[in-house]
Amino acid sequence: MPNILRREDIAFLLYDFLDLEELSRLPHFADADRSVYDAILDSVEKIAEERYQPHAQKLDANEPEFDGERVYIIPEVKEALDAFVEAGLMGASFDADQGGLQLPYLLQTAISAWFSAANWGTSGYTGLTVAAGNLLAEHASDAQKERYLRPMIEGRYFGTMALSEPHAGSSVGDIRTRAEPRDDGSYRLFGNKMWISGADHEMSENIINLVLAKIPGGPPGVRGISLFIVPRYLVNEDGSRGDRNDVRLAGLNHKMGCRGTVNCVLNFGDRDGAVGYLVGAPNCGLQYMFSMMNEMRIGVGLSAAALAATGYLHALDYAKDRTQGRRLADRDPQTPMVPIIEHADVKRMLLQQKAYAEGAMALCFYAARLADEKRAGDPTAQEKATALLDILTPIVKSWPSEFGLRANEIAIQVFGGAGYTRDYPVERFYRDNRLNHIHEGTRGIQGLDLLGRKVPMNGGAPLRALVSEMQATVHAARAVPAFADMAEGLEAAINRATETTLSMGSKAEQLGQEAYLANATIYLDMLGHVVVAWIWLRQALVAHEKRAGGADDALCVGKIMACRYFFRYELPAIEAQCALLADMDTTCLDTAAEAL
Amino acid sequence: MPNILRREDIAFLLYDFLDLEELSRLPHFADADRSVYDAILDSVEKIAEERYQPHAQKLDANEPEFDGERVYIIPEVKEALDAFVEAGLMGASFDADQGGLQLPYLLQTAISAWFSAANWGTSGYTGLTVAAGNLLAEHASDAQKERYLRPMIEGRYFGTMALSEPHAGSSVGDIRTRAEPRDDGSYRLFGNKMWISGADHEMSENIINLVLAKIPGGPPGVRGISLFIVPRYLVNEDGSRGDRNDVRLAGLNHKMGCRGTVNCVLNFGDRDGAVGYLVGAPNCGLQYMFSMMNEMRIGVGLSAAALAATGYLHALDYAKDRTQGRRLADRDPQTPMVPIIEHADVKRMLLQQKAYAEGAMALCFYAARLADEKRAGDPTAQEKATALLDILTPIVKSWPSEFGLRANEIAIQVFGGAGYTRDYPVERFYRDNRLNHIHEGTRGIQGLDLLGRKVPMNGGAPLRALVSEMQATVHAARAVPAFADMAEGLEAAINRATETTLSMGSKAEQLGQEAYLANATIYLDMLGHVVVAWIWLRQALVAHEKRAGGADDALCVGKIMACRYFFRYELPAIEAQCALLADMDTTCLDTAAEAL
C-alpha cells in the first residue's frame, strides 16, 4: 500500500464538500469538467506513486551536496520533476494565454497535496516555481512574462522567492541587499540572501530568482523594498541561455527535515553586480509579494496537512497489521495477540490523527476554493471570499502546522519503537513537518497578523463574514437531530470567541497594544479550533447527506466520528484559552528577561 | 556558554526544594555532606563540558556502524565514559559494601541529568549499566554480585536490559526466548531480542545482558518469565575474561535521535545456546524487573526533563543575542533592531519552556528523593514514599516526555530557521526526546498503569497520600497573601481531579473496564498537570522564602513567574479533560476500524 493519500478522501473534498463541479461552471474555468479533473488526478496519483514516493527515503538520507563548484542531487529527483513537467502539471493553474491549463486552484491544491505527501523534498522545486510564476503572472510586464514565465510554465526554468537575509528573516523591512539602477533600465544587485529554497542545482535550464532589494534613495523599512527578477543565467534576446549571472551559491543549509529541497545562502554581486530586472513599480516589492501571500500560506498549511494525512494512513495500516497484547477483557495469555487497532488508546490516537489531518486538509481545500472565487467569482462572491481569506489565511497557515505536526508525532507513537527508526517513513514526516511553523511567516507572526491586522480590519468585517458563515452551518446542523449537540457546541464556541474578541478590543485602548497582542498566538490557536470545528461540522453534514443517499458508508461514518471526536475532545479546550485571553493576562510580558 | 544546565537551578532543587542535607543525615547516607556533593557536582560539570558535550553533534552525525563483524563507535565516546568511570561515578548510588559511594539517588539524579543534557547518546551506556547493576544489587546472589556487579561498578563491564522481542515489545508476557536448564545449574538461551541498547560495542571488557526468558514447562504469560545473566563473554572462575558467549549481534536499529546509543537486535543460541545464569527464583523475572521499574521510569522522565532544560537554555541564550524587528510601539524602521527576547511572544515561548523543563526536572528530583526515603527512611517515611511513588511513577515517566518534547519543539521555534538546521543542537534535542514516550513502557501503558492499577491500588491509598501532600501545599500557600490565588487554584484542581476519579470509578461498574480505561492517557495528562502545578507551587513557596532571606533574586523571581505562568496558562486545561473523563466518553472506542 503506498498510503500516500486516499483518493476517496480527496474526491469527497473536491466534489462533495466543495463542489468543484459547480466552481467549474464559472466562465474562467469553463474549459474543464469532472472527467478532465479525474484524468489529471489519475495521472498525478500514478506519477506520485511511481516517481516521487520511491526515492523519498533515499533523498532524505542523501541530501543535496555542494562541493564548492556545483550542487549534487540524486538523479531520481530530476526524473520525478521531468514526469511532473511532461504531464503538464507545472501550468495547471496558470491562464491559458500564458500557456497554462487554467484549472481551478482547488484542483491544483489536490495535486500539490498528493506530491507533498509522496515526497515533500522533491515536490518543493515545482511548488516554488509555481509560486514564483504566480507572482510574475500578476505583476510582471508582458515582455517579462514571455521571457521568464513561459519557460517556467513549460518546466524549462525553475523559480525561487528570495526575501530573507542572514540578519533579517522575519524583519523583512531591514534587508540590506541593494539594487543600483543602470542606464539600460536594468539594475545591479549586491547583497546576501539566506534560506532560499531551490536556488542552486543543475536540474533546470535556468533558475529565476525573485529577489527583494532596496533601490538606494528609497524610503526606509518595508516601504522601500522593490522586487527584481534575477536569473541564474542571463537570457538572450532570442530566448537562448546567455552568460552566468553574478549570483553565487555561498553554501547550503543542512536541515532536520525537508532535506531534499536544497536550501541556499546566495551572494549577489561578488563581482560586478548581479543583473536584475525590476518587476512593476519601484518600492512596491513587498506589496507584490504579499499579493501572493494568501496562496503561499495556504500552500504551507497544505504541506502540513498532507504530511499529517500520509502519516495517518501509514499508522492506520500498521495498526491493522501489527499484533500486540490482548483486549482488556481477555486475561488468558494463551489466546492469540490482537491487531493493535483493537486497543482503545490506539484507536484514540488514530481518531485524533484523522481529526487533525483531515480537518486540516479540508480547511486548506476550503481556502483554495475561496481563492478561486476571489479570482474568478462574481463581484459579490469575490468580496465575500476576500474577507474570508483575510481572516482565515493565518489560521490556514498555522493550524495545520500545529496539529499536523502533532498528528505526525502520534503516528510515531502508534508504530512504537519501529516508528522511531528510519525503517519507516513516519519519523521523516515528523522531521519534515516541523518546518511549517517557521517558513513563510512564523507562528508568532501569524498570530500578530490575525489579531493585530485581520481582526480589526475594515471595522471587523472579515471576522463578521466568518461568523456569518459559521452560523449558517449551525443552522443547517440544527436540522439534523443527531447533530443537535454539535450545532449547540459550535454556536457556543462562536459566541465565546466573539465575546472574547470584543472584550479584548475594548480593553486594548486602556491596556495598550502590547498587552492586546501578548497572547496573540493563543488567540490564533483558539480561533483556529473554532474554525476547524466548523469545517468538521460542514463535512459531517455532507457525509450525513451522502449516507442518506446510501453511498460510501465507511467513509461517511468516519467523517462523522472524526467530527464527533473533534467536538468532544478538542473544541472544549478553547474555554480555558478564552478565559486567559479575555483577562488580557500579561504574566509573560511582565517577566523580566533576567528572571528567565 | 555551554548551556548544559544551570548549576544554580540544580542547587535550588537539591538544597532548597528537596533539602538534600536533611536527607543526608539518614544513617544510610551519613558518610557524605554538602561539601562532598558539591565537589562531585563540580567534577560532573567539568567532565560533561569537556568530555561529553563537545562530541555530541559529531556522534549524532556519525552513529554506530556494524560491518557484520564488529560495531564502530567514534572514539570520543569511550574517552568520555572513561572519564566518567575514573571519577568513580558509576558507583555513585551503589552501597559501599558493593564498591559504591552509597550516595543518595537524589544526587545520582542530578549527575544523570547533567550528562543527559550534555550528550544523551553517550550517557546511555552508563545509565544502562547503573540500571542493570541496581537489578543485580537487589536480586542476584552474592557470588553473582561479586562476579558481575563489582566489575560493573568499577566500570570495566557495562550492562543492558533485554526484555523486548521483535514480535513482543509492550506485551512482554508473549516473549518466546527460552532458557533450557543444564545439569551444572546454568541455562542455555535460544531466541531473539530487539531494541537492546548498548548490547554490542568494544568499549568495555564485557557486557552483562540481563535477559528475560521462559523456562520450558513454566506457566504461560507474565507468570512464567525468568531473569538471566547472559554475559557477552563468559567469565572464568578467577574473574578473567573467557570465551565469547553464543549471543550475537544480528543488526542495529537506525533511529531518528538518540543515535549515539547503539541499539541492537540480538540472537541468542544460534550455535549451541547462550550460557545464562538464573537470577533469584524461576518465574519471578518480571517481578524483579519491575522492582527497579520506578527508578528506570524516573530515569526516562529525567532524560526528557534534562533535554528540555538544556534546549531552553540554548533558546534563552539565542533570544538574548539575536536581534530582529522592533517593539510594537516603535514604528520607526531606522531605529536599531532589538534582541528577540523583547518580543512578547518570544518571552511567552521562553516562559512556557521554563515552566515545562524546570517543572519536569523538579518532579523527577522529587521522585528521586522519594526513592531515597523508600530505601533508607524510617518505616513511616518508607510507607509514605512507597505510596507516593506508586501513584507518581507513571506521571514522572510521562509528563516530562510529553511536555519536555513540547519544550524542545518551542526551542526550535525561538531559533526560527536556524533552529531547523543541524548547525544548532536544538533540533537534535527534539529528535532525541521523541524517544521518551516510547521506551520503558509507552505513554498508553503509563495511562493504563495509572488509572487501571495505581488509582484503585489498596483501596485508593496512593492517590489519597498524594492528595494529602498536595493539600499541605495549599495550606502553606494560603499563608502567603501573594499566592492566595494559586492556593485556591490548586485546591480547586485537586478537588476536580478527585471528583473526576470518583465519578469514573463509580461508573466503571456499570460501563465496564474498557470504557473506564478508554481515556486513560487523558487522565494521565490531567493528573500530571495537577501534580506539576503542585510541584511548581512548592517551588514558588521555597523561592518566596529564599527571597525574603534576600538571596538570588533573579532565580527566585523566575521560579515564581514560571509558577504563575503554569497556573494561568496550563492548569486551566484540566477542566475540559475532567469533563470528558467524567462523562466516560467512548467516541473512540465506538469508532469501527473500517471507518478510520
Automatic annotation (TrEMBL), chains A, B:
It holds the Pfam family Acyl-CoA_dh_N. The keyword Oxidoreductase applies. The keyword Metal-binding does not apply. It comes from the Bacteria. Transmembrane segments: none annotated. Residues 39-155 form the Acyl-CoA dehydrogenase/oxidase N-terminal domain. Keywords: FAD, Flavoprotein, Oxidoreductase. Residues 285-448 form the Acyl-CoA dehydrogenase/oxidase C-terminal domain. Its cofactor is FAD. SUPFAM superfamilies: Acyl-CoA dehydrogenase C-terminal domain-like (SSF47203), Acyl-CoA dehydrogenase NM domain-like (SSF56645). Residues 161-268 form the Acyl-CoA oxidase/dehydrogenase middle domain. This is Acyl-CoA dehydrogenase. PROSITE patterns: ACYL_COA_DH_2 (PS00073). InterPro entries: Acyl-CoA_dh-like_C_dom, Acyl-CoA_DH_CS, Acyl-CoA_Oxase/DH_mid-dom, Acyl-CoA_Oxase/DH_mid-dom_sf, AcylCo_DH-like_C, AcylCo_DH/oxidase_C, AcylCoA_DH/ox_N, AcylCoA_DH/ox_N_sf. Residues 467-590 form the Acetyl-CoA dehydrogenase-like C-terminal domain. PANTHER family: ACYL-COA DEHYDROGENASE (PTHR42803), ACYL-COA DEHYDROGENASE-RELATED (PTHR42803:SF3). Belongs to the acyl-CoA dehydrogenase family.
